[in-house]
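Take the subject:
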Amino acid sequence: MNSSTAWLALKSLEGGIQLTTTHAAEADRLSSELTSLLNEWGLASAVQALTLPLHGRQVALICTLRPDFRAQCMPGHDTLALHEKLGRPTQTDEAWALEREIWVALLGSPHRFQFASLDSLTSHIRVRRNMALDARKTALAFKTDAAERPQTYWRDGGDEAGFILQPGRCLVDALIAATQPDATGRLYDFSCYRATEYVILLGIAQELQSENPELLAQLQSLNEIHAVRSGQFHEVYLVEYGSIEAPLPGRFYVPGDRLWFRNPDERSSDVTGYEGSWVIYMGGGLFSNFWKRDTPYTLESKAIEIFHWKDGAYTDAQGALQMDETVVEALVAQTEANPSARAQVLERMLRMRDPQGVYAEGGCLDTTREYPKSVSRGHCELVLPNF
């Protein structure tokens, strides 16, 4: 990385990775360490760096992809084909390729990701890697009005506490047992929102096993008393980036992102569980499909499925709205087989969503993504609640 040649290019960029330090000399050292680290993924020559003064004595080391490399690998911040354009060197495993994809997506991001240290950055990348790999292994039974967990590891603490750990059971093992049928041979009942929480929590806990065991012990104790769910889960564990005012590009995703696809049809969005769809971006252009693990979604296939939810909605004998998945599947297959119809559906759906409560011309794409807070030992952002 060359700081002087990067100045003009970086001055016009808002994204990439920022490491904050207290001295310029520290920034130089970090730049050197980061170059050595990026060499492990063959990326050092693709990155440019700039040191900028901040308030007081603080300085920032800002790192981003060189414009030519970004234009080649993720034009318009499109990361969905990044894995293909990067290629896959021989004798590398799935985790290695995934970490490299995360590095490139972060460095080429239109959003600037800020980290307090290099250790915090590398921990963040490992958590994202864990989440993406765990999402690839996750398979569940879709239930919006029921929930089930392996009783060896979990017990029902009631509506207030939720499912809590059996005393003395390992949190990592319990989360794997609940979400990965390869471990138990069974599928357990989940909503898509709760399923993403388990995958995120598992990715965090796996990182803590080696990097911050003290925090893992606290997390273990918390889950033996009370589950952190829904809005509180978001507040405790996650950082949201992007906004309605500054939406993220529609094809920009970093492996380990949690995101929401909105159902833009007012009637079918009243079917419980079909208001939208929460997923994890797993890298490689694929989004989690917890109900059919072997057929993960592409951006296009997810948009087409959600489009046809309007056709699968019906009112049952009790007057309640329900969803007929067989109708949806049949119409998805028809649309996929008809290039003209497919293009029309995607033109409608691959737009930014309307604001909450509005059902007009918006599509299914959200303006934001979510990722876990830092859990590195030296710069931990995660503060667990008391119950």
Remarks:
- The chain has three domains: 3-108, 119-242+372-387, 252-367.
- Residues 140 and 187 are 5 Å apart (CA to CA).
- Residues 2-12 have pLDDT under 50 and may be disordered.
